[in-house]
Design brief:
Distance between the termini of chain A: 34 Å
CATH topology of the largest domain in chain B: Rossmann fold
Number of domains of chain A: 1
Largest interface: A-B, 29 and 41 residues
CATH class of chain A: Mainly Alpha
CATH architecture of the largest domain in chain B: 3-Layer(aba) Sandwich
CATH class of the largest domain in chain B: Alpha Beta
Structural class of chain A: mainly alpha
Number of helices of chain A: 14
CATH topology of chain A: ABC transporter involved in vitamin B12 uptake, BtuC
Number of strands of chain B: 20
Number of domains of chain B: 2
CATH superfamily of the largest domain in chain B: P-loop containing nucleotide triphosphate hydrolases
Distance between the termini of chain B: 51 Å
Order of helices and strands of chain A: HHHHHHEHEEHHHHEHHH
Shape of chain B: globular
Structural class of chain B: alpha/beta
Strand order of the largest sheet of chain A: 1-4
Helix content of chain B: 25-40%
Oligomer: heterodimer
Number of helices of chain B: 17
Chain lengths: 340, 494
């Protein structure tokens, strides 16, 4: 994956230079992650480095990772999607309600996908065709989707005891990897998350349609005059983001065995922080999926650190905000320097 | 007054000034010339304290100086008038002149009376007639430029640096400005005058210093040098004829357009473009040339228009459809809507043609794009010759070459180029002209919009003059015989 990211021209900004991509930002992020890891290992050698703890961190971050990929995609086309968390909830609730009503799993999954894509399409059309600011469009969608999810469930957990066992088990499935004396259980959510990181990363550097996203974000007008189908790609970006949100909804609903209207509250914040830390820019035209992965990992380790050091876990939320502000500040500075 | 010795400056690894030595005397107008990217701006920014030198010494008024900030330079008596005006249009002339260094009354309030009087004194000193109480926005650009000059000398400047002060002025306003400069020279000021217009500096400058690629080429008395010598020194080689020869043969029609209209901007424009010819669109800014071409590719929605490409009637619903048919429009605003500034040269060249670099499985190969980009870099003489360089770090001329490469990579049938050489230095300009001519000779229809009349006449074989959204005249120009007067005559109302 490292070599791939190094080769990818879309690391942060496409310079075409082979190693410049990883040189600064992503490399720094790797170092920060290693540093946090070492500090926590030294301070809590008993609890932190245990596989049980690391597994919990990694499986929990998988959901954030998928949402953050969605956010990165939209940021690349100079958009933003604040509705990721609530669309996650709405898709989850839709699937859970159908499963409870004894619909088959494929029908429930497709319905959830349909709902997510409908939200994505609405976002995309309002931004790309009508031309409303993405911030406003998705802020509205954030409220609409959450509201509908709450109305549908009256705020209750929606369980689906009659759903096939394989569906409720698969979200918690762990791949057993022998480690000599016993097994490491690797959560399937993590495997799916990492696979999608690699796949999306590859597609962004090797598939012309996705490479075009960068041009749209860097300069919409130049992209349009260069014959790039700007409107279509903008809508596609929001649809693609919705697809990733749906993946997350499926995994989360399966793992928790319930649908819930309050899933994903604050997810947009963590996704935004991770994506911008990882190299995406609010000014568009930049973003790196591997960087986003490192950003999510960093937030997860910081969050776990508060737990490990017996700090108030609520600091986690504050720390996400601080990371976001620092990252956005650095991004603004970078954009300012670029524009000069 | 000013002695600059062996001053060097690098940005990252790029040496933009290499041991430049020159001096300005009191009571002298010293012109600084060179192509874009020669290092003129860097040099005056170092003298003015905006940039810091890496090495070398600067002696000003007998003392060695090292300004860390423009205000220090100002305090020492060095005043820079930048190309872009920095006045506040909604404030009066006097307010502008004393912006951020207001005179105060004993109570600490702004003393407008004193400031107005001081402003009037300065105007009297330089011999210009401007009411200090007039709003700056109500003055012409030329008058505003004079206010800038007055503001610059009102700090008791000993050295005045004027960066392309005439670029937006009319002939009459330039005369006015030169009168002021002459006055200031007589009063013993040292003046550095940066300009692209060679005829001007022969009128005003005592000596001229030529920079090229960050090096000092020569300093000479203006009276002892000829215009051709200056151009040769600037580009480092003899420019033969400035423009390539006109079309050798003109073939059949490549593209025609009829009834092209855009509500409120373009009305009923019709034209043909033939193989082998360059069609020039002349006219005043705002006459509808850019608007017509943007409406042609439907970048701005048109109200009507019919098009034929190589004999077949075609539809053009949006720019991407135009591009797919081989019709390329290159914007006059290369930074805003032409290039992807923070991306590499290679990414820019391939922006319209990403699919060309994908194999049959749809997998994109960056190496193929890099290889192609290196061909363009060689063909277009793009500097630095590095396909991974960010376009924003290139000079205007080289950016324009990247823009052309992007268009050529499409293998266009019709290329519409809006202001191909705006803000481009002499060397790049003739290279761009030569490439456009080659393109026309190879059978591509070429349309050039230019507001520079010598360029329209030198480059095109036929000229359409635009006026008020429509074509007011078609002038045959196979030998460059059209006069500027003929164009102007059709471009303005009588």
């Amino acid at each position: 994956m490292m070599t791939h990211a190094a080769n990818s021209p879309d690391a942060t900004k496409p310079t075409g230079r082979r190693f410049a991509a990883l040189s600064s930002r992503q490399f720094l992020l790797v170092l920060i992650n290693v540093a946090i890891f070492l500090v926590l290992t030294i301070l809590r050698p008993d609890a932190f480095p245990s596989w049980t703890n690391l597994k919990a961190v990694l499986s929990l971050m998988s959901y954030d990772l998928l949402i953050a990929i969605a956010m990165t995609i939209v940021l690349i086309v100079r958009g933003i999607d604040l509705s990721v968390g609530s669309v996650l909830a709405l898709a989850s609730v839709t699937m859970a309600l159908l499963l409870r009503a004894d619909a088959s799993v494929p029908v429930a999954l497709l319905a959830g996908l349909g709902v997510a894509l409908l939200c994505g399409l609405t976002n995309g059309l309002l931004v790309g065709v009508v031309g409303i600011l993405p911030f406003l469009v998705t802020l509205g969608m954030m409220s609409v989707a959450r509201g509908i999810a709450t109305v549908l469930t009256t705020g209750q957990y929606i369980s689906f005891p009659n759903a096939p066992a394989w569906f409720t088990l698969f979200g918690r499935y762990e791949l057993q990897i022998p480690n000599g004396s016993g097994f490491y259980g690797v959560p399937v959510t993590l495997i799916i998350g990492l696979t999608l990181v690699v796949v999306t990363s590859l597609l962004f550097s090797r598939w012309t349609a996705l490479r075009s996203f960068f041009f749209v974000g860097e300069s919409t007008e130049a992209a349009r005059l260069s014959g790039i189908k700007v409107t279509r790609l903008t809508v596609a970006a929001y649809l693609l983001a919705a697809l990733f949100v749906w993946f997350t909804a499926v995994l989360l609903t399966s793992a928790n065995k319930i649908g819930y209207a309050n899933y994903g509250i604050g997810a947009e914040m963590r996704a935004l922080a991770a994506a911008v830390v990882g190299g995406a820019s609010l000014a568009g035209g930049a973003g790196n999926i591997f960087g986003t992965f490192l950003g999510v990992l960093m937030l997860a380790l910081i969050g776990n650190g508060f737990v490990m050091l017996n700090g108030n876990p609520n600091w986690q939320q504050a720390s996400v905000g601080i990371v976001l502000l620092v990252a956005v500040g650095v991004d603004a500075l970078r954009t300012y320097r670029d524009r000069r | 007054m000013l002695q600059v010795t062996a001053v060097s400056k690098s940005f990252f690894s790029n040496k933009v000034l290499d041991a430049v030595t020159f001096d300005v005397r009191a009571g002298e107008v010293h012109a600084l010339v060179g192509e874009n990217g020669a290092g003129k701006s860097t040099l005056i920014n170092i003298i003015g304290g905006i940039l810091q030198r890496d090495s070398g010494t600067i002696v000003f008024d007998g003392k060695e100086v090292d300004f860390g900030h423009p205000l220090q330079a100002m305090g020492a008596g060095i005043s820079v008038v930048h190309q872009e005006l920095s006045l506040v249009p909604n404030a009066t002339v006097a307010e502008n002149m004393f912006l951020r260094r207001e005179k105060r009354t004993a109570l600490g309030l702004n003393d407008w009376r004193a400031m107005t009087r001081a402003a009037a004194d300065v105007f009297e000193r330089v011999g210009i007639d401007i009411d200090p109480n007039a709003l700056v926005g109500s003055l012409s650009v030329g008058m505003q430029q004079l206010v800038e000059v007055a503001k610059a000398i009102s700090i008791d400047a000993k050295l005045l640096i004027l960066d392309e002060p005439t670029s937006s002025l009319s002939e009459k306003e330039i005369d006015e400005l030169f009168k002021v400069i002459n006055d200031l020279r007589r009063q013993g000021l040292a003046i550095i005058f940066v300009s692209h217009k060679l005829s001007e500096l022969f009128k005003i400058a005592d000596r001229v210093t030529v920079l090229r690629d960050g090096h000092l080429v020569a300093t000479a008395e203006t009276s002892a040098i000829k215009s051709e010598d200056l151009i040769r020194m600037m580009v480092g080689r003899q420019l033969g004829t400035l423009y390539p020869p006109h079309a050798s043969a003109i073939g059949d029609v490549v593209f025609s357009c009829k009834e092209l209209s855009r509500f409120g901007a373009v009305s009923d424009v019709a034209f043909d473009v033939r193989r082998g010819e360059i069609l020039g669109l002349a006219g005043l800014v705002g006459a509808g040339r850019t608007e017509a071409m943007r409406a042609l590719i439907n970048a701005d929605e048109r109200s009507s228009g019919r098009f034929w490409l190589e004999g077949d009637e075609i539809q053009i619903h949006d720019p991407s459809e135009a591009l797919a048919r081989g019709i390329v429009y290159l914007s006059e605003d290369r930074k805003g809507s032409g290039l992807f500034l923070s991306y590499s040269v290679a990414e820019n060249i391939g922006a319209s043609t990403l699919d060309h670099y994908a194999d049959r499985f749809g997998v994109f190969h960056f190496s193929a794009l890099r290889k192609r980009s290196r061909e363009f870099i060689a063909k277009m003489d793009i500097r630095p010759p590095d396909e991974t360089a960010r376009v924003m770090n290139l000079s205007g001329g080289n950016q324009q070459k990247v823009l052309i490469s992007k268009a050529l990579d499409v293998n266009p049938k019709l290329l519409i180029f809006d202001e191909p050489t705006r803000g481009v230095d002499v060397g790049a300009k003739s290279l761009i002209h030569a490439r456009l001519r080659e393109l026309a000779e190879s059978g591509v229809g070429v349309v050039v919009i230019s507001s520079e009349m010598p360029e329209v006449i030198g480059l095109s074989d036929r000229i359409l003059v635009f006026r008020n959204g429509g074509v007011s005249a078609e002038l045959m120009n196979r030998k460059g015989e059209v006069s500027q007067e003929a164009i102007i005559n059709n471009a303005v109302y009588h």
